[in-house]
Each structure stands twice: as C-alpha cells, then as structure tokens.
Amino acid sequence: MTRFEILDAGHYYRLEAKAVIDAPRDQVWRVLTDYGHLSEVSPRILTSKVIVGSPPGITRVRTLTRLCFLIFCRDLRQVQLIRERSYGEFESVTVPAQSDLTYGRARWRLTDEGTRTGLSIDFTFALPAHIWLPRFVGRLIVRSVLWADAEELITGIERVTHRSRDPTHGH
C-alpha cells in the first residue's frame, strides 16, 4: 500500500488508499466487477449477491461483511448501487434503508502501471448513531479495521488474478 489515510469529521469517515497490484489492469477490473464473487477476494466479505431489477447502467449488489477489532466482531450488511463510469473506473452509493451504514459513497480507479495496476480508492461513509464511538477510539478502530481490510483486498485481488492465470486451476 503506497498511501492510506483516514479522515474523520464526527460520524463521517473518509478512506483514501492507493496501491499497486501485481496484475494487469484487465484482470484486476474483471475481479473487482465480478460482484457475485467478491467473497473470493476478501475473507471479510461473507456473501455478495447481484440483485436483479436494477435501473439501466446500474448494478445493485448486496454484501455481508464481517468486521473485527480485537475480539469484537460485527456483521455489516450493505446494498450498493454501482455504476461503471468508464473502463477502469466505477463508483458505488450505499442504499441506507437497506444497509448498516447511514451514508456510503466510493470511487475506484484503475490505471496501467506497466504490467501492474494502480488502484485508487476514495470511500466516504457514516455510521449510524447507535454505533457512535468517541472520536479518538472511533478513529483508531476504523483505521485498524480498514487498514487490515485494504491490505487483505490487495492480497486477495492478486491471489485471484494469479489463480485465473494458472492453467492448472479450473475456475
């Protein structure tokens, strides 16, 4: 991970992360946009499912993610509306009424870095009032959980892309 930053303002948090993934952009794109199989990328994603009946140009995805800090874990359900802006860029918006976040918006960008792929993530989210945490503790927990999640995501993308390049692996 070349850059990782968490900014907080009350109940809102913003994650900015940049990394270089050891895989070509088309393979990274294919893995990230295979919304029904996101659990293969991150062990924190317990399930992901594409919901039929989305508006044109939008993919509605439901995920269940387990987030843990020390020995405390919480399952977080989220429904996102995902729009692919262009090849290598997509953004998602959380549907609060169907999610455990009161707000969520993410932008993902992929760039060519020779034979590797640059990944940039800008994610802003808000936790509901019943999950309120004191500012210092909240920032520490959010940073710890999201840092681990981002690291696992990069490793998972590389693992899945390398597996798909392996002719002996039948996936």
How would you sum up this structure, described in words?
- The structure is a single chain.
- The protein is α+β, with helices and mostly antiparallel strands.
- It has one domain (3-164): Alpha-D-Glucose-1,6-Bisphosphate, Chain A, domain 4 (2-Layer Sandwich), CATH 3.30.530.20.
- The protein is built from two helices and eight strands, in the order ββαββββββα.
- It has helices at residues 25-32, 135-165, and strands at 3-9, 12-21, 45-51, 59-69, 72-86, 89-94, 103-113, 116-126.
- It has an eight-stranded antiparallel β-sheet, covered by helices on one side.
- Strand 7 (103-113) and strand 8 (116-126) form a beta hairpin.
- The chain is globular and about 40 Å long.
Write the layout of secondary structure elements.
Layout: E1 3-9, E2 12-21, H1 25-32, E3 45-51, E4 59-69, E5 72-86, E6 89-94, E7 103-113, E8 116-126, H2 135-165
Shape type: globular
Instruction: Count up the helices.
Output: 2
Based on the structure given, which CATH architecture is correct? Answer: 2-Layer Sandwich
Q: Reading side by side through the largest sheet, how are the strands ordered? A: 1-2-8-7-6-5-4-3
Derived structural class: alpha+beta
Using the CA coordinates, give the radius of gyration: 16 Å
List keywords for this structure.
171 residues, alpha+beta, Alpha-D-Glucose-1,6-Bisphosphate, Chain A, domain 4, eight-stranded antiparallel sheet, 8 strands, 23% helix
Quick rundown:
The chain has 171 residues and is α+β, with helices and mostly antiparallel strands. It has one domain (3-164): Alpha-D-Glucose-1,6-Bisphosphate, Chain A, domain 4 (2-Layer Sandwich), CATH 3.30.530.
